[in-house]
Backbone:
């Protein structure tokens, strides 16, 4: 992806924001906006990697990967860059790991309008400080991602959602690598993937019935240690991701305190990367979402 | 304020603050061929003691270097410029285990394999399994973002660390990440993993544990050419199978290992692949069939499927003892670590053989073929005049060839000292400045292992290059 235009538009001074498909809050109001390029550069099935512009809709990426029998652990809405900037994983995190583990390499435009490369092109890489880790979830406050290189995985041969009234932790203990286990305080839903015969035997052995996954409440997204999920019962309507700790709740998440030392690190990092505070001004990754 | 050593003794007692010549000589090295120098080694036994050591170093303006088991191969734990060594080997307890949610808090001095052994009864293990796992520590795994053969399917250490309790370079104690999946703010836990001791010292680590698979199949396949083996690996991945591990050994390696462990390995093969798949029975059966079919498409000469756990362990022993076996060929070796795209493996391997030949050296190749992580092993005799120089030149060419093929400088060993001055092969000045900006945010005073990873101002670090690797090194 050619990022020279993006870099020129970002320029070297003045407040600037970045826009995707506005599915995750959208750009900062009243500030000049840029957009990252869109389009798939290549898919390399035998490397399990794909490279695309950060402005590419996730749906387009999914379709391109599906044609090669591959998938990527990015939730299905908006743009690839938007999903990475916000950093929230989808429902398959239990089975496939968090979104942040998908970003292998990124080229971004920094606050000085320069194109910077973070990470590396291979699935195995320990070369220097991993700035891709800093970018995921940074909400555009440290740099505007223009191009990404992602880790893909093969699509499962077969998948099926099941429902049960069994204890979700009992299922978590007995099933081998379920892709997702959801619980609303009474019912448990399980997504199993793999060879169809294996899926059926696991389901039979644990008394699961075929059933559609639940609708998720959208009032708030809570993040709890998975060991505390049992306490969510009685707090309102919710669907919890067992073994992970995300709770899709009808109520907004309770506020959380952040250690002052962590706040200080955030201040220093922001100052190093964007001393004038021109990137997505007013966006504070530590503020309640 | 007393001297540095006095202050450290006041904080830890005399027993765990060492400054005798024998010990200093041991701690000046890691498992690489580089050595530095230090005046004092501390062995804290708690988070509070680690904090005290760092505070004291900070007060005296002295750099410090964290050390796990000292098994690193890139000089990451080598003390430079009078750095205080803060060794975490006394902090070796598993603190708590949540077997329901498969997480545990451990101290940094817990040894990698010990952790998995201690948790085996719960049906889980810690997935990163470097070949040094009998000796390396979890803290070291965090610092180096360690890999290992089973990281192909499972991911490297960063995917298995949820949180770290860290003493920052100014002595402040904090927690990065959390047991919860989306801690507020930047992924500071993620940048800490793989930061090679330059952003602080981890004193407690929350690790993710992986379910032991219900079934395993391990196969050894041999080929008449390296190309056939490499093409088989690409074919397997392209077909949608991600084995738990795919390891390749070339002919010289097979010969050395067979002489050592007598497992009936195919010593006349140009290359052998050790492929392991795990999971549920039907999927496993289908995977094995498909893998063998792909291997046959690429002219596999024979396929040996381990009949039982004992045979599986023997095949793995062969792979993991590749190092010990090498001493039979020449007394010294230099182990390299680069990654190339899988599809470029045959091309880069051919270049590696050519580079070795032009420098009149023998090279063995053992590597994590599944993710393109190459470990060319140059064997030589350091007593031979000029041999060490030829080894270094050959090494530089190997690194350059790997990066030129679209690879990276290091898959597992980290940059440390060894590849610090190669960073510009992969990163521009602007890229490196961004990495330095992150480091500055954590360590404005440049006291945490300051001369590693990033190319430094000229004032940084006098090192000694040793002629040979210490005994017991692994690949």
Residues:
């Amino acid at each position: 992806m050619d990022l020279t235009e993006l870099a020129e538009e970002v320029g070297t001074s003045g407040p600037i924001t970045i826009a995707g498909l506005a599915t995750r809050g959208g750009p900062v109001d009243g500030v000049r906006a840029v957009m990252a390029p869109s389009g798939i550069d290549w898919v390399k099935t035998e490397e399990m990697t794909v490279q695309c512009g950060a402005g590419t809709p996730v749906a387009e990426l999914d379709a391109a990967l599906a044609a090669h029998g591959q998938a990527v652990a990015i939730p299905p809405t908006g743009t690839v860059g938007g999903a990475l900037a916000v950093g929230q994983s989808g429902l398959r995190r239990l089975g496939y790991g968090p979104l942040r583990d998908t970003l292998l390499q990124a080229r971004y435009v920094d606050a000085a309008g320069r194109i910077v490369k973070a990470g590396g092109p291979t699935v195995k890489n320990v070369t220097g400080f991993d700035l891709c880790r800093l970018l995921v979830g940074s909400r555009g406050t440290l740099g505007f991602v223009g191009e990404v290189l992602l880790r893909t995985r093969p699509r499962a041969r077969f998948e099926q959602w099941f429902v049960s009234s069994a204890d979700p932790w009992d299922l978590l203990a007995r099933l081998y690598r379920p892709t997702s286990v959801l619980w609303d305080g009474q019912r448990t839903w399980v997504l199993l993937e793999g060879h169809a015969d294996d899926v059926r035997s696991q389901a039979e052995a644990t008394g699961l019935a075929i059933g559609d996954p639940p609708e998720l409440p959208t009032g708030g997204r809570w993040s709890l240690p998975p060991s505390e999920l049992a306490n969510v019962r009685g707090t309102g309507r919710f669907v919890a991701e067992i073994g992970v700790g995300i709770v899709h709740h009808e109520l907004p998440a309770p506020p959380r305190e952040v250690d002052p030392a962590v706040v200080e690190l955030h201040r220093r990092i922001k100052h190093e990367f964007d001393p004038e505070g021109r990137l997505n001004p007013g966006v504070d990754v530590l503020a309640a979402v | 304020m007393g001297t540095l050593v006095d202050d450290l003794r006041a904080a830890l007692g005399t027993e765990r603050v060492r400054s005798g010549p024998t010990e200093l000589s041991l701690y000046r090295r890691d498992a690489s061929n580089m050595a530095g120098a230090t005046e004092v080694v501390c062995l804290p036994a708690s988070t509070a003691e680690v904090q005290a050591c760092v505070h004291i170093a900070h007060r005296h303006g002295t750099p410090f270097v964290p050390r796990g088991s000292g098994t690193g191969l890139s000089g990451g734990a080598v003390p430079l410029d009078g750095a205080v060594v803060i060794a975490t080997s006394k902090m070796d307890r598993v603190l708590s285990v949540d077997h329901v949610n498969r997480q545990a808090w451990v101290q940094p001095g817990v040894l990698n394999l010990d952790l998995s052994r201690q948790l085996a009864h719960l049906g889980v293990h810690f997935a990163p399994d470097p070949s040094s796992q009998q000796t390396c520590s979890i803290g070291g795994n965090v610092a180096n973002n360690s890999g290992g053969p089973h990281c192909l399917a499972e991911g490297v250490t960063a995917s298995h660390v949820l949180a770290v309790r860290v003493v920052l370079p100014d002595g402040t104690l904090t927690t990065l990440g959390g047991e919860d999946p989306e801690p507020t703010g930047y992924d500071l836990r993620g940048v800490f993993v793989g930061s090679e001791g330059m952003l602080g010292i981890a004193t407690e680590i929350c690790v993710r544990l992986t379910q032991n698979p219900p079934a395993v199949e391990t196969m050894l396949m041999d080929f008449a050419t390296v190309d056939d083996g490499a093409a088989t690996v690409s074919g397997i991945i392209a077909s949608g199978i991600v084995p738990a591990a795919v390891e390749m050994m070339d002919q010289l390696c097979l010969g050395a290992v067979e002489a050592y462990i007598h497992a009936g390995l195919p010593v006349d093969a140009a290359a052998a692949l050790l492929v392991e798949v795990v999971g549920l029975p039907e999927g496993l059966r289908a995977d094995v069939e498909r893998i063998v079919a792909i291997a046959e498409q690429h002219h596999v000469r024979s396929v040996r499927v381990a009949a039982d756990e004992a045979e599986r362990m023997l095949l793995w022993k062969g792979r993991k003892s590749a190092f010990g076996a090498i001493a039979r060929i020449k007394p010294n070796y230099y182990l390299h670590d680069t990654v190339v795209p899988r599809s470029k493996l045959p091309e880069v391997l051919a270049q590696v053989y050519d580079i070795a030949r032009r420098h009149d050296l023998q090279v063995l190749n053992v590597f994590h073929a599944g993710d393109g992580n190459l470990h060319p092993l140059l064997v030589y005799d350091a007593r031979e005049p000029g041999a060490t120089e030829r080894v270094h030149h050959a090494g530089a060419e190997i690194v350059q060839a790997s990066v030129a093929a679209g690879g990276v400088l290091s898959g597992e060993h980290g940059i440390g000292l060894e590849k610090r001055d190669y960073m510009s092969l992969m990163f521009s000045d602007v890229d490196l400045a961004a990495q330095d900006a992150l480091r500055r945010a954590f360590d404005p005073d440049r006291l945490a292992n300051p001369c590693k990873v990033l190319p430094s101002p000229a004032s940084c670090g006098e090192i000694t290059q040793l002629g040979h690797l210490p005994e017991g090194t692994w690949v």
Chain A touches chain B through 80 residues (CB under 8 Å). The radius of gyration of chain A is 20 Å. The longest strand of chain A covers residues 144-151. DSSP finds eight helices and 16 strands in chain A.
